[in-house]
Amino acid sequence: MKDILEARLREGLDATHVEVIDESHLHAGHAGAKDGGGHFRAVIVSDRFAGLNRVKAQQLVFSVVEEWMGREIHALSMKTFTPDRWSKESQ
Question: Alpha-carbon distance 7 to 85, whole Å?
Answer without folding.
Answer: 22
